[in-house]
Design a protein that fits this description.
Elements: H1 11-33, H2 39-42, H3 45-57, H4 70-94, H5 101-123, H6 135-154, H7 158-176, H8 192-197
Helix pairs in contact: 1-3, 1-5, 4-5, 4-6, 4-7, 5-6, 6-7
C-alpha cells in the first residue's frame, strides 16, 4: 500500500523503494535510538519478506481493486499500525527503558511513522503525510500508544489490552477517516468545468 503513493509515470522504479522504506526504516530508527543493531540487519528475513511483499503488491493497481477488497486492505493497514505501536513500546521496555514513558512513546511513533516520513521527504520530496493528510491518524496513534503504555504498567493482560486497543483504533479511524487509507493519498476532486466541457 505504501508503494501506491509512487507517481504513475515512475511507479515501477520507486515502488519497491517506497515499500521497503515504509516497512523497515521506522524500525531501524527505533533500534538505533535504543542503541541496538537494527532488527532487519540482525535477521535478514525481515528484508526478504518486505521485498517479496513489495514485488507482489507492485503487480496490483489500487485503483482497479474490486470494491469488496479495499475495505479489507484498510483493515489490514490499520491493524498493522497498532501492531507497530505495540512492537515499538515492547522493544523500548525490553531494552531497558521501562521507567521512561517519553522514550516508549517516541519508539512507538517512530516505529509506526518513521519510514513513511523518510519516504515522503527523500523519495517523494514532499511534505510527510504524517503532518498533513494523515495528521488525525497520528493523534489516534498517540492515544493508542498511551493506552498500551498505561496498560503495560498497570499489568493488564496483554492479549485483551491489544485486542481492545485494536478495536478502539479501528472505530476511531472509521469515524475520523472513513474509508480513506492511511497510506494512500487523497484523490483530488475533478473540476466541474472539465466535465461540462465534454458535454
Amino acid at each position: 500500500m505504501a508503494g501506491s503513493r509512487a507517481p504513475k509515470h515512475s511507479r515501477t522504479r520507486i515502488f519497491i523503494a517506497l515499500s521497503l522504506s515504509d516497512s523497515l526504516l521506522g524500525g531501524v530508527g527505533r533500534d538505533l535510538l535504543l542503541k541496538h543493531e537494527p532488527a532487519c540487519l540482525a535477521s535478514p528475513e525481515y528484508i526478504l519478506i518486505a521485498l517479496g511483499a513489495a514485488c507482489l503488491a507492485n503487480k496490483l493497481d489500487p485503483d482497479e481493486l474490486a470494491d469488496y477488497v479495499k475495505p479489507a486492505l484498510m483493515f489490514i493497514d490499520r491493524l498493522n499500525m497498532v501492531v507497530f505501536l505495540f512492537v515499538g513500546l515492547a522493544k523500548a521496555q525490553v531494552w531497558g527503558f521501562r521507567g521512561d514513558s517519553s522514550y516508549g512513546l517516541l519508539c512507538a511513533i517512530l516505529t509506526t511513522f518513521g519510514g513513511g516520513i523518510v519516504s515522503d521527504l527523500i523519495i517523494l520530496k514532499k511534505t510527510p503525510g504524517a503532518v498533513s493528510t494523515n495528521a488525525p491518524l497520528v493523534v489516534i496513534s498517540i492515544f493508542a500508544a498511551l493506552v498500551l503504555q498505561f496498560a503495560g504498567k498497570a499489568g493488564w493482560p496483554t492479549v485483551w489490552t491489544l485486542a481492545g486497543t485494536i478495536l478502539a483504533v479501528l472505530l476511531l479511524c472509521q469515524i475520523v477517516l472513513g474509508a480513506q487509507s492511511p497510506s494512500a493519498e487523497p484523490v483530488a476532486s475533478k473540476d466541474p468545468s472539465e466535465t461540462d466541457a465534454g458535454t
